[in-house]
Amino acid sequence: MGKNDKNLIFRPIKLTLASLFKESDQVSSGSPHIHSNINLKHFMLIAMVALLPSTFAAIYYYGIRMLYLIGFTYFVAFIVEWAFAIFRKEDINEGILVTGLIFPLTLPPTIPFWIAGVGMAFGVFFGKEVFGGTGRNIFNPALVGRLFITIAFPTYMSSMWINPSTPDAVTSATPLIFLRANEVLPFTLWDLLIGTAPGSIGETFRIGIIIAGLFLIATRVIHWRVPIVYLGTVVVASYFGHLLLPSEVVQPIYQLLTGGLLFGAFFMATDPVSSPYTKAGQVVYGIGLGILTIVIRSFSGFAEGVMFAIILMNAFTPMIDAYIIDKKFKPLSE
Fold first, then answer.
1. If both were cysteines, with which of 129, 265, 295, 296 could 227 make a disulfide (CB 3.0 to 4.6 Å apart)?
2. 334 vs 318: CA distance, rounded Å
3. Would you call 31 exposed, middle or buried from its count of C-beta atoms within 10 A (0-12, 13-18, 19+)?
């Protein structure tokens, strides 16, 4: 291997390390310019900080294996990103830092490493890189990977759960599955809030998720309209749905505090690339998310509807923004 070949292979890593420890010297050449004190690096750093409560809670409740799992998925994501960076002669984008952490936090704690690796590679490859990389993807990459392994490996993704209060015991049901079966929930609301009920690795410590979500809103890393409208729509839709079909639609409080709703609302539905950037579009997007989540949770063969709802609304995002911009800036007829 020649010197030029080595430079080509390791150039993305050098550029990435330089971008992490130095301010970017890149400026846009065209106008208009939008001034902001948050660049991509700072944006990803704040998002990483917000994910720490869920990460630490996962390690506390499920053990050191969760740290190894996160490290492994990061490694897989890095390899895929590195390969594309070499091909495109670019650096590895900071987006890998958030995607590589969100994805494992959506997985069951007993997930085999090889399945997690397949999902991570699929999500980065087909959810982002085939569209051209960060900023060009239509769908949330972490959700693309999660959705793929949910369909490809349904047994692993729907039955092998661990009860955090007794981590040596494996259970086949999460609170959402209990509620879908119209069974008495063996967990209190406090259990659901502090994370002592079964669920995906990062979704159970809901007090931490709420605090982290408010932190993201306060720092303006995410727009408040998407999570607030999303959660509000879930509450309204489930309230009236429960009045009309109590055996099918779960009460609002359990809709909010079971499954990955809170985690999805604050960390995945708000992805700035795959969610609308117009204010009206964010409201329409949030309403669509809420309705789809309730419909899928209540009437489909899947107990959880959050990831399906977000992926579906990601597909509608360009159309929503285009329609609103067209209506807002449509020339007056003569």
1. 265
2. 29
3. exposed
**Beta bridge pairs of residue 169:** none
Q: What's the pLDDT tens digit per position in 309-330?
A: 999 999 999 999 999 988 877 6
40 and 133 Cβ atoms separated by less than 8 Å: no
C-alpha distances in angstroms, 267 versus 47, 148, 192, 263? 8, 19, 19, 6
Residues 107-115 have a mean pLDDT of 93
Give the integer Cα–Cα distance in Å for 10 and 5.
Answer: 9
Token readout for 115 is 């399945």
Q: Judge contact between 78 and 95, C-beta under 8 A.
A: no
Q: What does pLDDT average to over the chain?
A: 84
C-alpha–C-alpha distance, residues 149 and 197, integer Å: 23
Q: 3-class SS at 170?
A: strand
Backbone angles phi, psi at 161, to 5 degrees: -110, 160
Query: What are the residue ranges of helices labelled H in the chain?
Result: 3-21, 40-62, 65-88, 95-105, 113-127, 141-152, 154-158, 175-180, 189-194, 206-218, 225-244, 252-257, 261-263, 279-299, 306-328
Rounded to whole angstroms, the Cα distance separating 22 from 112 reads: 37
Q: Are strands 170-171 and 161-162 parallel, antiparallel or unpaired?
A: antiparallel
Residue 236 exposed, middle or buried by CB count within 10 Å (0-12, 13-18, 19+): middle
Six-digit token string for 304: 């959880």
Contacts of 117 (CB under 8 A, 6+ apart): 72, 73, 76
Contact 137, 273 (CB under 8 A): yes
- Per-residue model confidence as pLDDT tens digits over 156-186: 887 667 777 665 556 657 888 888 777 778 8
Q: Quote the tokens at residue 46.
A: 């704040």
Segment 7-36, tens digit of pLDDT: 556 555 555 555 544 555 555 555 544 555
Tokens of residue 165, six digits: 């209060």
